[in-house]
Amino acid sequence: MPRITIADLRNRVPALALYELVDGEYRPLAAAAAGATFVMRQPFEFSVDPADLLDEEAPEEEPEAGE
Q: Which end of the chain has fewer CB atoms surrounding its CB within 10 Å, N or C?
């Protein structure tokens, strides 16, 4: 069956959803938002916390004046 995975990064709250085409309609198989684990088994095993998809590193601290 055809499947589609959608990554939604709107509003900086990442989410993933996996859908499968059944009888002409896409039906949800798995979904997770930041802080939960998205897991799929087909066509290969994969799991991730959608929050890990954002590249948000802490900004480097600027040295204070006079240092």
A: C
